[in-house]
Specification:
The chain is an alpha+beta fold. It contains eight helices and 17 strands. The N and C termini lie far apart (50 Å). The protein binds adenosine-5'-diphosphate and magnesium ion. Adenosine-5'-diphosphate binds next to strand 1, strand 11 and strand 12. Adenosine-5'-diphosphate (ADP) binds next to strand 1, strand 11 and strand 12.
Length: 339
């Protein structure tokens, strides 16, 4: 693809919303006693609940709920008291039950924001929601020449999905946002934040519009970026591709695209029209999850100091430069050492 001139790029504004999946570091899976460990022998953590055998029943995992609430509190979300889970129905080989248990219209965490820093500027990235769900199994397409292999160990492991409002305006803001989220989940000890191994995954919804126009353009969803710098590269490529298409009089197709890290481009995976109708309905096998005020208070009391709070303290109280304060709040260990 030819590169575009800074003048042309400057005529447009990018609109970006991110969806981040984060694997929770619980001992057992989201709704069963199977171990949720990473890297076990394939298909060894697969009891009847994970495989969706008839007559089995899922159960809430308190540890997973606590972890999700911690993220919600850290992002200043409103935590929902009455939570109904939902079934998202679709067929895929890595989904043994034929549906995923998720939260549809009652997400656990609502609203909230994450503060990012671009140079000396501060910006709050508003969140739409954070909801809980279970992961699918994993299809392996490159281990066997003639067959696809499936590992169901991951099926049913707990995830949170963090969804932002379409308020991100550049690849750099997206880069900083994912960096903050990774820092946060690591501070909270709820996810190892490893994008290469897929314990943290980011999908980027991207559209462009002529500067000054209020109406959003058609969005494209880009998947399969396995590092934060690839999130940035994928967004930059996609912004340019969309601007060129629009300048050529083409219509942007609403579709899902995949990032190719070797070529540095994105390619079409599926058109949005062909996406399943998931036929969500309330999960009949799980009682509603009630988050009591007592539970919230107990979790609040356990919350560690968070990176943003420490950054302000290192700058304000200890009179450190922004550069030093940022470096010293990179990890909890480093921050603790300095305190
Ligand atoms: P869908 O129903 O296709 O999943 P949602 O409205 O749930 O779309 O939004 C999914 C993500 O896409 C959110 O992060 C949201 O902020 C973002 N988004 C929505 N519309 C646009 C747009 N026009 N351009 C870029 N991102 C968008
Ligand atoms: Mg959506």
């Amino acid at each position: 693809m030819k590169t575009i001139s800074p003048e042309l790029r400057d005529k447009y504004e990018a609109v970006i919303g991110l969806e981040i999946h984060s694997q929770l570091l619980t001992k057992s899976k989201a709704f069963s006693s199977d171990l949720a460990e990473y890297g076990a022998m394939p298909n060894t953590n697969v009891n009847e609940v994970s495989l969706g055998h008839p007559g089995t029943l899922p159960k809430h995992n308190k540890e997973a709920v606590i972890m999700a609430i911690k993220v919600g509190l850290a992002c200043k979300c409103k935590i929902r008291e009455y939570n109904q889970y939902a079934r998202k129905n679709y067929f895929y080989a890595d989904l043994p039950k034929g549906y995923q248990i998720t939260q549809d219209n009652t997400p656990l965490c609502n609203g909230g924001h994450v503060t990012i820093h671009i140079g000396d500027e501060e910006k709050n990235i508003e969140l739409t929601r954070i909801h809980m769900e279970e992961d699918s199994g994993k299809s392996l397409h490159d281990l066997d020449l003639n067959n696809s292999l499936i590992d169901y160990n991951r099926a049913g492991t707990p995830l949170i999905e963090i969804v932002t409002e379409p308020v991100i305006r550049s690849s750099e803001e997206a880069y900083q946002f994912v960096t903050e989220i990774r820092k946060l989940v690591r501070f909270l000890d709820i996810c190892d934040g490893n994008m290469e191994e897929g314990s943290l995954r980011c999908d980027a919804n991207i559209s462009v519009r002529p500067k000054g126009r209020e109406e959003f353009g058609t969005k494209v969803e880009v998947k399969n970026m396995n590092s934060i710098s690839n999130v940035k590269k994928a967004i930059e490529y996609e912004i340019d591709r969309q601007i060129i298409a629009i300048e050529n009089g083409e219509k942007i197709a609403q579709e899902t695209r995949s990032f190719d890290a070797l070529k540095g481009n994105t390619f079409s995976m599926r058109a949005k029209e062909l996406v399943n109708d998931y036929r969500y309905f309330p999960e009949p096998d799980l009682p509603p999850l009630i988050v009591s005020q007592k539970m919230l208070d107990d979790i609040k009391a356990e919350m560690p100091a968070l990176p943003e709070e420490l950054l302000k303290r290192f700058e304000g109280e200890f009179k450190l430069s922004r550069y030093d304060a940022t470096n010293l709040t990179e990890t909890k260990e480093l921050a603790k050492y300095y305190l």
